[in-house]
Every structure is written in C-alpha cells, then in structure tokens.
Amino acid sequence: MRASVSVALAAVLGVIEVGGPAAPVPLFNGTDLAGWKAFGRATKDGPTTPVDAKETWTVTAGVLRCTGRPTGYLVTEKEYADYELALKWRYPAGLKGGNSGVLVHVQKGDTVWPVSVEAQLRAGRAGDLWLQTAAEVKLTVDPARRDPDDKTQRHIWRAPKDGDVERPTGEWNDYRIVCRGGSIEVAVNGRVVNGGTDCNLKSGRIALQSEGTEIEFKDVTVRGVK
C-alpha cells in the first residue's frame, strides 16, 4: 500500500500542478492558527457551533496544544485532494492515555462529527479507521479488519490489531496518511497499519479532534501525490 510522492501540490478545491518534486507545505505554521477554524459543542446533545479556537487550542514553541474541551475539532479552511499528510502527536507525560483523531476528506456541514474518514489517535488504537458515518462514507477494506462488535460497520481495526506500534505517553509519534483518489493509507511510526480503497470521498478539509483529553501536535504538513 506504500505510495510514491510526485508533482502535485494540494490546494483549495483540488490540486495545482507544479514543476519538480512536491515539497511538504506546512498546514500549521508553528506560530498561530492561521488557516484553521474551530468548531465545538458545549454539551453532549447540544448543537455544534463555531468557537473561539484559543479557548481550546494554543501554540507554544511550535507545538499545537489541545485541552480536549469542548468536544469538537480544528479544521483547515482549504480543501485538499491527492496528498500525503504528515504530523507528530503525543499525549503529555503523566497521562494514562487519551483520545483524539485526524479527520480527512471533511465535508461541509460542520457538526460533531462531520462526514469524513477518521484516522484514530485513541491511545492504544492509533491507526484504526472510523467512517463518519457508514451511511455516507464507503471504503473497501479487508473484511477481517472490520470490528464485529460494531453493528454500524464504521470501525476498521489496524493490522496487526494488537501490535505495539505507539510510543510511550510523553513521547512524540509520527503519523502519515496518504489519500490518493479513492485510496487511503495510514502509517504509525513508519509502519503501515491500515488502509482501504474505493472511498466515495476523494477530497475535503483536514481536521484535528478535541475529544476530552489533552493532546499535542507539531510538524503538520501536506504534500501532493498522484
């Protein structure tokens, strides 16, 4: 499932062709939240609304820190297609674990959660996939990796399901997500652990989840592939 990097640069509403090899383009500039918008909901059953990003997301020394509250997400203003997304994440030292995720192909209609494909970052389950929602998102995967306890057929296990691919709490992990046409590939710390083909979503925004616990991100970049 490994992908080769080529000559396209992801941009708003698609891909702009550029000459020469594509170089990584920062999505997070390490200084502020330019290019991103925040959404959240104050209560479990409450409406999702735009929120002041600085109440949840702060930037210090090139690190993007999320408090986990309120439940919601930080999403790019632009849409992307045919790209490799790379980032680093960690849960602060002292936490037993945490929950978050990276959403790709985020569609319009901002709500918790928007129509998208989630690459899971829940501690111990990084690399799992969730279809948000199965009624609107289709992805062809190995049937053996579908969670038999999930009647909605939204949850797709990483492989190996119980493999030790994450680093200890407090240490940085590497995430790489390649979206090319209808295919999606997910790698954790350099190891390909999940993916699928024939996704009916092929472009959209990119989002980082706020889901109840602190988490930090850095080195968030995108580069075009074809």
Strand and helix layout:
Layout: E1 8-11, E2 14-17, E3 25-26, E4 36-41, E5 49-50, E6 57-60, E7 63-66, E8 71-76, E9 80-81, E10 83-90, E11 101-106, E12 116-120, E13 129-132, E14 155-156, E15 173-180, E16 183-188, E17 191-196, E18 203-210, E19 215-224
Antiparallel strand pairs: 1-2, 3-19, 4-5, 4-8, 6-7, 7-19, 8-18, 9-18, 10-15, 10-19, 11-12, 11-18, 12-13, 13-14, 15-16, 16-17
Explain what this protein looks like in three dimensions:
The protein has 226 residues and is mainly beta. The chain has one domain: Sandwich (Jelly Rolls), CATH 2.60.120.560. Helix content is 0%, strand content 43%. It is built from no helices and 19 strands. It has strands spanning 8-11, 14-17, 25-26, 36-41, 49-50, 57-60, 63-66, 71-76, 80-81, 83-90, 101-106, 116-120, 129-132, 155-156, 173-180, 183-188, 191-196, 203-210, 215-224. Strands 4, 5, 8, 9, 11, 12, 13, 14 and 18 form a 9-stranded antiparallel β-sheet that branches. Strands 3, 6, 7, 10, 15, 16, 17 and 19 form an 8-stranded antiparallel β-sheet that branches. The chain has a two-stranded antiparallel ribbon with strand order 1-2.
